[in-house]
C-alpha cells in the first residue's frame, strides 16, 4: 500500500488544481491520495496545528501547504512547508501591548509558520504574492471560516499586477544571475540544475499574468499547462520536474541553452516593470468587514 500511495503522490502532475473550479481527482485516485496523506502526513500535521492552538491560545483559520509541494514539483523526501493564518480571541486585541503576529515552529519534517489575521490582511492589501499563493494552494489542511473564500474572490478582482511582476521578476532574475548566468560568464562548465526550477517557476507565473490578465495558479504544473510557450522550453522544464519528482538528484550539470535563452529574452524587460505604475482597483475597507466577521466567529 505504501508503494501505491507513494506512486500517487509522486505522479502529482495528474492531480492538479483548476484555478477557478478547485481540485478534480478521479474517485479511485482520490481514495488512494487520501489514504496516502493520512498515512504519511495528515495526523502529524493536524496534531501539530492543534498543539499550536492549545499552547498559544489562538484559532487557526486556514492552513495549507506552501513551497515545492504546493507548486507540485517536490521530491519524495522534502520537508512539508505548512503555512497558516490565525486569530487571537477578540479581547486580546484590546491590550496595549502588541500581540505576536507570527508563529514559527519546526517539528521534524514539518516547517510550520503562520501569520496573525491583521498581519495577513495588511499584506493582502499589498498583493503579497506568497500570501496569495497560500490562498490558492492546491493542498489545504484546514479552512475554518468563509472569509477565506471572500479573500480569494477579492484577490482575483483586485490584485496589483505591478506588485506581482515586481516579486516574481526579481525572484527569477536573482536566481538566474546568481546561480546560472554568473557561472556561465565566468567560464564554468556546470551549473546547479535545480536552480533552473526556481528561475522558470516565477517566469511561467508572469507569462500567465501577461497572457490571461489573472493571478496564476499556485500549482506550477497547472500554470505551465495553460501558458503558451515554445515546445522545446516546455519539454526542458518538464524533464527537470520529472527528475525532481522521481527523487533524482539535480546536482551540477551542463547549462541548458534553451532555458538560458528563455530567461535572457524575458527577464530584462520584466525587470523594467515599475511596481507603482498601477493603482489599487479595490476599496480595501472591505478587509475591515472581514476581520470583524472573523473575530465575531469565535
Strand order of the largest sheet: 5-6-4-3-7
What's the CATH topology name of the largest domain? Beta Polymerase, domain 2
User: Mind telling me the CATH class of the largest domain?
Assistant: Alpha Beta
Whole-angstrom Rg: 20 Å
Shape: globular
Got a strand count? 9
What share of residues is helical? 55-70%
What is the residue-mean pLDDT, rounded to a whole number? 84
How big a fraction of the residues is strand? 5-15%
- Classify the secondary structure makeup into a structural class: alpha+beta
Main sheet overview: 5 strands, mixed
Low-confidence stretches: 1-40
- CATH architecture classification of the largest domain: 2-Layer Sandwich
> H/E element string?
HEEHEHEEEHHEHHEHHHEHH
The total count of helices amounts to 12
The tally of structural domains comes to 2
Task: Report what the structure shows.
This protein has 298 residues and is of the alpha+beta class. Helices cover 55% and strands 14% of the residues. The chain has 2 domains: 48-158 and 282-296, Beta Polymerase, domain 2 (2-Layer Sandwich), CATH 3.30.460; 161-271. It has helices at 2-10, 27-56, 67-71, 117-125, 129-135, 147-158, 161-185, 194-212, 220-226, 231-245, 257-271, 286-296, and strands at 17-18, 22-23, 59-66, 80-87, 102-107, 110-116, 140-143, 191-192, 252-253. The strands form 3 sheets. Strands 5-6-4-3-7 form a 5-stranded mixed β-sheet, sandwiched between helices. The chain has a two-stranded antiparallel sheet with strand order 1-2. The chain has a two-stranded antiparallel ribbon with strand order 8-9. A hairpin with a 3-residue loop joins β1 and β2. α1 (2-10) crosses α2 (27-56), α7 (161-185) packs across α11 (257-271) and α8 (194-212) packs across α10. The longest helix has 30 residues, at 27-56. It starts with a helix and ends with a helix. Residues 1-40 have low confidence and may be disordered.
Amino acid at each position: 500500500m505504501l508503494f501505491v500511495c507513494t506512486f500517487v503522490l509522486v505522479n502529482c502532475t495528474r492531480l492538479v488544481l483548476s484555478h477557478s473550479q478547485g481540485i478534480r481527482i478521479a474517485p479511485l485516485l482520490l481514495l488512494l491520495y487520501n489514504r496516502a496523506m493520512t498515512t504519511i502526513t495528515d495526523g502529524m500535521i493536524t496534531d501539530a496545528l492543534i498543539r499550536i492552538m492549545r499552547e498559544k491560545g489562538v484559532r487557526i483559520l486556514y492552513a495549507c501547504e506552501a513551497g515545492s509541494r504546493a507548486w507540485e514539483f517536490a521530491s519524495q523526501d522534502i520537508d512539508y512547508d505548512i503555512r497558516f493564518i490565525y486569530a487571537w480571541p477578540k479581547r486580546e486585541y484590546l491590550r496595549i501591548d502588541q500581540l505576536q503576529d507570527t508563529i514559527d515552529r519546526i517539528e521534524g519534517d514539518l516547517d510550520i509558520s503562520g501569520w496573525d489575521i491583521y498581519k495577513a490582511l495588511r499584506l493582502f492589501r499589498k498583493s503579497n504574492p506568497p500570501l496569495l499563493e497560500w490562498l490558492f494552494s492546491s493542498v489545504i489542511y484546514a479552512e475554518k471560516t468563509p472569509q477565506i473564500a471572500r479573500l480569494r474572490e477579492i484577490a482575483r478582482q483586485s490584485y496589483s499586477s505591478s506588485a506581482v511582476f515586481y516579486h516574481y521578476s526579481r525572484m527569477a532574475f536573482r536566481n538566474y544571475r546568481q546561480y546560472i548566468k554568473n557561472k556561465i560568464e565566468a567560464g564554468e562548465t556546470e551549473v546547479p540544475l535545480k536552480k533552473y526550477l526556481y528561475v522558470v517557476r516565477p517566469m511561467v507565473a508572469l507569462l500567465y499574468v501577461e497572457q490571461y490578465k489573472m493571478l496564476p495558479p499556485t500549482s506550477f504544473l497547472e500554470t505551465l499547462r495553460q501558458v503558451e510557450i515554445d515546445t522545446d522550453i516546455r519539454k526542458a522544464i518538464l524533464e527537470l520536474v520529472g527528475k525532481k519528482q522521481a527523487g533524482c538528484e539535480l546536482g551540477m550539470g551542463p547549462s541548458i541553452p534553451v532555458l538560458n535563452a528563455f530567461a535572457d529574452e524575458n527577464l530584462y524587460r520584466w525587470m523594467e516593470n515599475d511596481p507603482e505604475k498601477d493603482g489599487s482597483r479595490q476599496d480595501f475597507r472591505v478587509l475591515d468587514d472581514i476581520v470583524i466577521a472573523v473575530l465575531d466567529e469565535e
